[in-house]
Amino acid sequence: xxxxxxxLIPPSATLPAPCLTLDAQGNVLTRGVVELGGPAxxxxxxxxxxxxxxxxxRWLPLPSGSPAQVAAVALYALRDELAxxxxxxxxxxxxxxxxxxxxxAVVARSLLQAWRDYLETLGLRPDVMLPDSLVxxxxxxxxxxxxxxxxxDLALRGRDLALSLQPDLAEAxxxxxxLDRIGRADEIERLLAAAALNPPINLLAGTGRGVExxxxxxxxxxxxxAALVASPLILTxxxxxxxxxxxxxxxxxxEAVARRAFPDIAxxxxxxAEATRRLAAAPPPGGTVNAAAxxxxxxxxxxxxxxxxxxxxxRGVRATVTYPAYQDLEALQRAMAARGMAxxxxxxxxxxxKVVSEVRVGGA
Length: 364
What we know:
Number of strands: 16
Radius of gyration: 21 Å
Structural class: alpha+beta
Distance between the termini: 43 Å
Largest sheet: 5 strands, mixed
Strand content: 25-35%
Number of helices: 11
């Protein structure tokens, strides 16, 4: 009997990953978790559900052609919604719908590799990766949205809509549409099993030879620099599961990769620190929509704070924020860091008893 392992990537590498084992009909055989240092998982087809908050999903009318050609067209069509160059992104394509459109899922190449690295640390090699929002069914009416909680986020699915976000933003995104919440564990398991048997999209299919080929080029070096230097996921794994010898080797590799990724770093500079600074200035993961949603949520979490303006252009995502006290900026930065983004203060002034900062949103 052919079996499938379905694993949900947790928000932190310190947490165990929920796991289901399914038979060929989608029946749940076992429930459990996979964690670092546990027994080696049994080889079988593995489907990983990733956080939908990090994936931009759109439906587009696309021409025929090879997958690589169609993905390139999709990235070009979405260029105004993306805050990173196309060569730093992966676009995966779904099946054409009756209206002639295809779902397109866009994710940062470095983040996709970080998820793969995490699973490989657990002894797993994924065959499929799909965002949690596409696990949900499309509602029958256009004035309704299907909703379910995955981890700390709420996934939403509607007509031409699939995304995950903080629950307190759901009503704003719904814009008057009714929310049909799925809360029963057995119903969510049924949806997960259906998605595992027939994945609506596979983020790994969008990589082609890209991720593997990048191991030999500067793009792969940049992805490794982002993972080794800046990713809490990889840092946590290194601290928890590697011995001193491998930690030392990892530090040396990080410095070497940072210099390959940014060859203009001065010889006497700390390459890891400089790479971290540059990566923080990189475009935020998930594009402008996710950056805006994260910034709105961060501002709402600080009493008296206001978002005065938000601009997205070739220079990245920038905003003007007003708040009561200087320490409130640190609270905003912590909230953005929890969403995998960096909030860099470019200028700060006092204005009639309040503090006004020009900030830039970048990748953490």
